[in-house]
């Protein structure tokens, strides 16, 4: 009986340490993204800036496509992924002085904002929607 209690305590302690370590890792990553860079703004500050500056450029089609593209991301992380992708799309649109968010800017921004493993989903989604993505093949890494 004493060994069972000791094993439960050891197991519970191990579980808590592992869960706190995982939580700490994600908190530390968020902390690093909030740290100001040489220009005085953090990564998150720039993301918020680009999104705020481009709000008038997003039409319903662009918003719907963005929501569809972030669907495979787990619900817990979807808002963070959506902000990162939308910020990259907005940055490209603003730097190119676009009047609105176009499909070309959306595809390129998504490719540049996401890791390689997400490019397969983009290609699949574009094929389903019959959207030609040949001019972006040099950016896509499958």
A few lines on this structure:
Keywords: Membrane, Transmembrane, Transmembrane helix. The protein has six helices and no strands. It has 142 residues and is mainly α.
Description:
The chain has 142 residues and is an all-alpha fold. α2 packs across α4 and α4 crosses α5. The chain starts with a helix and ends in a 14-residue tail after the last helix.
Strand tally, please? 0
Order of helices and strands: HHHHHH
The residue-averaged pLDDT reads: 88
Helix content: 55-70%
Taking all Cα atoms into account, the compactness measure Rg is 20 Å
Number of helices: 6
Largest sheet: none
Shape label: elongated
Give the low-confidence spans. Answer: none
Strand content: under 5%
The secondary structure category is mainly alpha
Through-space gap between termini: 54 Å
SSE layout:
Layout: H1 2-34, H2 43-54, H3 60-69, H4 75-95, H5 103-113, H6 119-128
Helix pairs in contact: 2-4, 4-5
């Amino acid at each position: 009986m004493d060994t069972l209690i000791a094993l439960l305590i050891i197991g519970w302690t191990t579980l808590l340490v592992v869960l706190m370590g995982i939580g700490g890792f994600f908190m530390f990553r968020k902390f690093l993204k909030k740290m100001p860079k040489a220009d005085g703004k953090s990564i998150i500050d720039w993301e918020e800036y680009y999104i705020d500056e481009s709000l008038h450029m997003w039409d319903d089609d662009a918003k719907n496509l963005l929501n569809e593209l972030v669907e495979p991301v787990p619900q817990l992380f979807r808002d963070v992924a959506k902000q990162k992708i939308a910020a990259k799309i907005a940055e490209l649109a603003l730097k190119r002085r676009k009047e609105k968010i176009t499909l070309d800017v959306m595809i390129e921004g998504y490719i540049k904002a996401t890791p390689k493993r997400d490019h397969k989903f983009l290609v699949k989604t574009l094929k389903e929607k019959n959207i030609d993505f040949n001019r972006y093949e040099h950016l896509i890494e499958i």
